[in-house]
Amino acid sequence: MSNLVNFNSGINSVFDDLFNNSLSNFVGSDFASNVPSVNISESPDDFKIELAAPGLQKGDFDINVEKNTLTVSAKKEVSSEVNKEKFTRKEFSYSSFSRSFQLPEGVESNAIEANYENGILGIVLPKKEEAKELPPRAIEVS
Prior knowledge:
Low-confidence stretches: 2-12, 14-33
Strand order of the largest sheet: 1-2-7-6
Helix content: 10-25%
Number of helices: 1
CATH topology of the largest domain: Immunoglobulin-like
Distance between the termini: 93 Å
CATH architecture of the largest domain: Sandwich
Order of helices and strands: HEEEEEEE
Largest sheet: 4 strands, antiparallel
Number of domains: 2
CATH class of the largest domain: Mainly Beta
Mean pLDDT: 78
Radius of gyration: 25 Å
Number of strands: 7
Protein backbone atom coordinates (compact mmCIF):
# COMPACT_ATOMS: atom_id res chain seq x y z
CA MET A 1 0.00 0.00 0.00
CA SER A 2 2.82 2.45 0.79
CA ASN A 3 4.28 1.90 -2.70
CA LEU A 4 0.96 2.99 -4.21
CA VAL A 5 0.93 6.13 -2.03
CA ASN A 6 4.51 6.96 -3.07
CA PHE A 7 3.61 6.36 -6.75
CA ASN A 8 0.54 8.63 -6.52
CA SER A 9 2.47 11.43 -4.80
CA GLY A 10 5.21 11.08 -7.43
CA ILE A 11 2.69 11.34 -10.28
CA ASN A 12 0.99 14.31 -8.61
CA SER A 13 4.37 16.01 -8.28
CA VAL A 14 5.08 15.47 -12.00
CA PHE A 15 1.69 16.95 -12.98
CA ASP A 16 2.13 19.87 -10.59
CA ASP A 17 5.54 20.61 -12.09
CA LEU A 18 4.22 20.23 -15.62
CA PHE A 19 1.18 22.46 -15.29
CA ASN A 20 2.47 24.99 -12.79
CA ASN A 21 6.06 25.46 -13.92
CA SER A 22 6.59 24.04 -17.38
CA LEU A 23 3.57 25.74 -18.88
CA SER A 24 4.73 29.14 -17.65
CA ASN A 25 8.21 28.39 -18.99
CA PHE A 26 6.77 27.35 -22.33
CA VAL A 27 4.51 30.38 -22.67
CA GLY A 28 7.14 32.74 -21.28
CA SER A 29 7.14 35.53 -18.78
CA ASP A 30 5.92 38.02 -21.40
CA PHE A 31 2.54 36.27 -21.57
CA ALA A 32 0.02 38.59 -19.95
CA SER A 33 -3.37 37.21 -19.06
CA ASN A 34 -4.41 40.19 -16.94
CA VAL A 35 -6.27 43.31 -17.88
CA PRO A 36 -4.72 46.63 -16.85
CA SER A 37 -5.31 48.07 -13.41
CA VAL A 38 -7.81 50.93 -13.31
CA ASN A 39 -8.32 53.94 -11.08
CA ILE A 40 -11.66 55.76 -11.24
CA SER A 41 -12.24 59.08 -9.52
CA GLU A 42 -15.04 61.64 -9.40
CA SER A 43 -14.85 65.39 -9.05
CA PRO A 44 -17.71 67.91 -9.12
CA ASP A 45 -17.22 68.42 -12.89
CA ASP A 46 -16.20 65.01 -14.24
CA PHE A 47 -15.18 61.40 -13.79
CA LYS A 48 -11.62 60.28 -14.54
CA ILE A 49 -10.47 56.80 -15.54
CA GLU A 50 -6.77 55.90 -15.52
CA LEU A 51 -5.56 52.60 -17.00
CA ALA A 52 -2.02 51.35 -16.43
CA ALA A 53 -0.93 50.24 -19.91
CA PRO A 54 2.85 50.62 -20.26
CA GLY A 55 4.64 49.74 -23.48
CA LEU A 56 1.82 50.73 -25.81
CA GLN A 57 1.49 53.59 -28.29
CA LYS A 58 -1.46 55.96 -28.72
CA GLY A 59 -2.45 54.18 -31.92
CA ASP A 60 -2.73 50.81 -30.12
CA PHE A 61 -5.89 51.91 -28.29
CA ASP A 62 -9.49 51.74 -29.46
CA ILE A 63 -12.03 53.63 -27.31
CA ASN A 64 -15.76 53.49 -28.09
CA VAL A 65 -19.01 54.57 -26.47
CA GLU A 66 -22.18 52.66 -27.30
CA LYS A 67 -25.44 52.59 -25.33
CA ASN A 68 -23.92 54.09 -22.16
CA THR A 69 -21.00 51.65 -22.21
CA LEU A 70 -17.43 52.85 -22.61
CA THR A 71 -15.13 50.15 -24.03
CA VAL A 72 -11.36 50.49 -23.99
CA SER A 73 -9.30 47.95 -25.89
CA ALA A 74 -5.75 47.68 -27.18
CA LYS A 75 -3.77 45.35 -29.42
CA LYS A 76 -0.03 45.15 -29.88
CA GLU A 77 2.00 42.74 -31.98
CA VAL A 78 5.80 42.71 -32.05
CA SER A 79 7.96 40.45 -34.18
CA SER A 80 11.64 40.10 -34.96
CA GLU A 81 13.67 37.77 -37.14
CA VAL A 82 17.37 36.90 -37.12
CA ASN A 83 18.91 34.96 -40.02
CA LYS A 84 22.34 33.37 -39.55
CA GLU A 85 24.20 30.80 -41.62
CA LYS A 86 22.55 27.66 -40.29
CA PHE A 87 19.52 28.87 -38.37
CA THR A 88 16.67 31.32 -38.36
CA ARG A 89 15.16 32.67 -35.19
CA LYS A 90 11.82 34.34 -35.41
CA GLU A 91 10.14 35.66 -32.29
CA PHE A 92 6.82 37.37 -31.90
CA SER A 93 4.53 38.46 -29.14
CA TYR A 94 0.93 39.51 -29.18
CA SER A 95 -1.02 41.13 -26.40
CA SER A 96 -4.47 42.59 -26.17
CA PHE A 97 -7.09 43.55 -23.63
CA SER A 98 -10.59 44.95 -23.48
CA ARG A 99 -12.40 46.60 -20.57
CA SER A 100 -15.92 47.96 -20.48
CA PHE A 101 -17.42 50.50 -18.10
CA GLN A 102 -21.10 51.31 -17.59
CA LEU A 103 -21.42 55.10 -17.76
CA PRO A 104 -23.53 56.97 -15.21
CA GLU A 105 -26.57 58.82 -16.57
CA GLY A 106 -25.02 62.26 -16.06
CA VAL A 107 -22.01 61.81 -18.39
CA GLU A 108 -21.75 63.98 -21.50
CA SER A 109 -20.68 61.15 -23.82
CA ASN A 110 -20.03 63.46 -26.79
CA ALA A 111 -17.33 65.34 -24.84
CA ILE A 112 -15.21 62.40 -23.58
CA GLU A 113 -11.47 62.97 -24.03
CA ALA A 114 -8.49 60.61 -23.73
CA ASN A 115 -4.73 61.01 -23.55
CA TYR A 116 -1.82 58.59 -23.17
CA GLU A 117 1.31 59.63 -21.31
CA ASN A 118 4.04 57.72 -19.45
CA GLY A 119 2.22 54.38 -19.72
CA ILE A 120 -1.08 55.71 -18.34
CA LEU A 121 -4.21 56.07 -20.48
CA GLY A 122 -6.29 58.88 -18.99
CA ILE A 123 -9.95 59.29 -19.92
CA VAL A 124 -12.00 62.31 -18.80
CA LEU A 125 -15.78 61.92 -18.75
CA PRO A 126 -17.35 65.36 -18.23
CA LYS A 127 -20.66 65.61 -16.41
CA LYS A 128 -23.74 67.22 -17.93
CA GLU A 129 -24.64 70.56 -16.33
CA GLU A 130 -27.77 69.10 -14.72
CA ALA A 131 -25.72 66.27 -13.19
CA LYS A 132 -23.15 68.54 -11.55
CA GLU A 133 -23.43 68.90 -7.83
CA LEU A 134 -24.62 72.35 -6.85
CA PRO A 135 -22.97 74.13 -3.93
CA PRO A 136 -25.03 74.33 -0.76
CA ARG A 137 -27.15 77.45 -0.39
CA ALA A 138 -29.17 78.89 2.39
CA ILE A 139 -32.92 79.20 1.93
CA GLU A 140 -34.57 82.06 3.71
CA VAL A 141 -37.84 81.37 5.46
CA SER A 142 -40.50 83.97 4.74
